[in-house]
Amino acid sequence: MRANFIFSEVWIGLRRNLTMTIAVIITVAVGMAMLGVGLMIKAQVGAMKGYWDDKVEISVFLCNKGSAMPACNGKAVTTAQIKTLEGHIKGIQGVKEVFYEDQASAYKNFQESYAANKALVEATKVEDMPQSFRVKLVDPDNYQPIIQAIEGQPGVSQVMDQKQLIGKFFDLLDKLSFYALAVAIILVLAAALLIGNTVRLSAFNRRRETGIMRLVGASNLYIQLPFVMEGTIAGLIGGVFAAVILIVTKVFLFEEIAGYFGDVTAQLTWNDVAQAITVTMIIGVLICVLASFVTLRRYLRV
Amino acid sequence: MIHFDNVTKVYTNQNRPALDHVSVDVDKGEFVFLVGPSGSGKSTFLRLILKEERPNSGAIHVAGKDLARLSNFKVPHLRRRIGCVFQDFRLLPNKNVYENVAFALEVIGKPRRFIRKVVPEVIELVGLEGKAHRMPDELSGGEQQRVAMARAFVNRPMILLADEPTGNIDPATSIGIMKVLDRINRTGTTVVMATHDAAIVDSMRKRVVELEDGKIVRDQSRGVYGQAY
């Protein structure tokens, strides 16, 4: 096997079909990037779920004086009610821990969260803040029965589960990753067809050479390899571009977004990115090789 | 060397056979002219030897191998032992004489040192010394055919098939081409040449096999082109 001969043939083929080669590279790059982004979103959702599962809790807000919630009837919760409630919540199956947050600490949290909005902080008094229970669950996904058990108890104004709020965000991410994968499949199909066409053009351009090669007894591998390599190299270059796109996406998009929703542990790791790149590379190159071979069988009689 | 036993070839979508129960034997080192009008089956005969086509019935042996039993991936090895020359030369226009001849060896994976040694030898054998770096379009038709012959012979095949090699060349130049073919034949290579050129056949006085409508109508040693009764 004369490697430099094969490579010079490949180089000639790629140069002659430059525009087609560029089209293949772009399509593969975008398609593989989409596939990679889809995989990365999935990994990101996984990381954030793990992070939030430790953090999410049910907030049980208690009645204030003059509360607008119909369950309160405009009366503030009494100390006795708080005691019974705490006992009740602790008795529910699936509850891990219960914390009580009084008005003072609620106000402190409020001040911290809205530090930028001085007018709001100044307008709010300690008495306006609701007292609440923070309930941690054994299984954060199984919040429905616990909420039901707490809602309607005397002194409870509102039960809020963070899981419900975050769940919407996760659903959105899931949808995004689904769309990215759908677009990736379409683009991969387009890439396969483009590669097929490129190889066909290439085979037509070099029909003299291949005719002579056949005649003088070159083996099938020798005749077909340059064509398959053409597709593979175009696919590889596309894959490298896709890898660059994925790395850029991780740094400028995922890290930015994930910053709002959790700390470092909620972030996509470089390991996840490397996995996405490996998978997309393998799929990209496999598709290129397959498309080349299928086309060659049709257009290059050996 | 070449053995046809009752070979019939019918192309799909055609009723009339291209070759009709043909039996021929060509021995090692022979020079055989294949004559007959267009469509008489000469080219089919040559294509069958290369296993570019398969016969519908009958057996073909080339260089001791039964072609029917030769698996597809061994066909290239068969073709390495057979050189081919055509009416239209089939040179690569973007390669010079040396590169065109070397191409035949490169694509079968011969080492570069071997190629550097044998290519100049064979270029000299066909009478193109000093023209190794010319491009095909700088050469006359006769010279181009010599390049094609050099390429066909550079791997020292056992058999050389020539399909109307003088078809595009004027009579005076054709004589030179025939001299090269004769030289190749004298090295022990079996030569089968399909031709329409009566003058050449008559002058060479070699074995003549005449085909008509796919049947052998004459097989004469030291024959001429026309009927020599």
UniProtKB/TrEMBL annotation, chain A:
User: Which Gene Ontology CC terms are recorded?
Assistant: plasma membrane
Q: Which domain of life is it from?
A: Bacteria
Q: Which UniProt keywords apply?
A: Cell cycle, Cell division, Cell membrane, Membrane, Transmembrane, Transmembrane helix
Q: How does it sit in the membrane?
A: Multi-pass membrane protein
* Coiled-coil spans in chain: none
Give a Pfam family name: FtsX_ECD
Q: Which residues form the signal peptide?
A: none
GO BP terms in the entry = cell division
Q: Where are its TM segments located?
A: 21-41, 178-199, 233-253, 273-296
Report domain ABC3 transporter permease C-terminal positions: 182-301
> Is Magnesium given among the entry's keywords?
no
Can you say where in the cell this protein is located?
A: Cell membrane
Q: Which residues form the FtsX extracellular domain?
A: 56-159
Q: What does this protein do?
A: Part of the ABC transporter FtsEX involved in cellular division.
Q: How does it assemble?
A: Forms a membrane-associated complex with FtsE.
Q: Which family does it belong to?
A: Belongs to the ABC-4 integral membrane protein family. FtsX subfamily.
NCBIfam families referenced in this protein's UniProt entry, alphabetically: FtsX_actino
What protein am I looking at? Cell division protein FtsX
- What is the native source organism of this protein? Nonomuraea terrae
Automatic annotation (TrEMBL), chain B:
Q: Does the keyword Cell cycle apply?
A: yes
Q: What is its main location?
A: membrane
* Record's GO cellular component terms: plasma membrane
Keyword Repeat set for record:
no
> From the UniProt record, which GO molecular function terms apply?
ATP binding; ATP hydrolysis activity; transmembrane transporter activity
State the InterPro entries in the record.
AAA+_ATPase (IPR003593), ABC_transporter-like_ATP-bd (IPR003439), ABC_transporter-like_CS (IPR017871), ABC_transpr_LolD-like (IPR015854), Cell_div_FtsE (IPR005286), P-loop_NTPase (IPR027417)
Judging by the UniProt lineage, the source's domain of life is Bacteria
Membrane topology, as annotated, equals: Peripheral membrane protein
Pfam families for this protein: ABC_tran
Compartments where located: Cell membrane
Biological process GO annotation list? cell division
- Segments forming domain ABC transporter: 2-228
Keywords of this protein's UniProt record, alphabetized? ATP-binding, Cell cycle, Cell division, Cell membrane, Membrane, Nucleotide-binding
Instruction: Briefly state the protein's biological role.
Output: Part of the ABC transporter FtsEX involved in cellular division. Has ATPase activity.
Question: NCBIfam families, from UniProt?
Answer: FtsE
Would you identify the family this protein belongs to, as annotated? Answer: Belongs to the ABC transporter superfamily.
Q: State the oligomer form and interacting partners.
A: Homodimer. Forms a membrane-associated complex with FtsX.
Q: What is this protein called?
A: Cell division ATP-binding protein FtsE
Q: What is the organism field in this record?
A: Nonomuraea terrae
